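Hi F.,

I've been meaning to write this up properly since the lab meeting, where we talked about keeping a consistent format for the predictions we share between groups. The idea is simple: the sequence comes first, exactly as it goes in, then the structure tokens exactly as they come out, then a line or two of notes. No screenshots and no reformatting. I'm using this chain as the first example so we have something concrete to point to.
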Amino acid sequence: MGQVVGFPSVDPADVRIGARLKHWRTRRSVDLDVLAQAVQLSPEDIRMIEAGRRHLTTSQMAAATQALHLPLWALVSDTPAY
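Output, unedited:
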């Protein structure tokens, strides 16, 4: 009998960060390809991050916030940290 391979678990934090990334990218009118180049990932990787199916490293998060002209908290929290 064959095995059923399950989907990898999704981290709720990655889902929230991905949703915030997509929100800010859209709001700032930054093209997916431009953001992908700034973060040094493929556009497909950015799509997966925005869908919460891939983890964004700290250095990638820093590059993304710099490309979007955002403070770091904008991707990790809905509450401004000032």
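Notes:
Residues 36 and 46 are 6 Å apart (CA to CA).
The chain has a mean pLDDT of 90.

If this format works for you, I'll send the rest the same way.

G.
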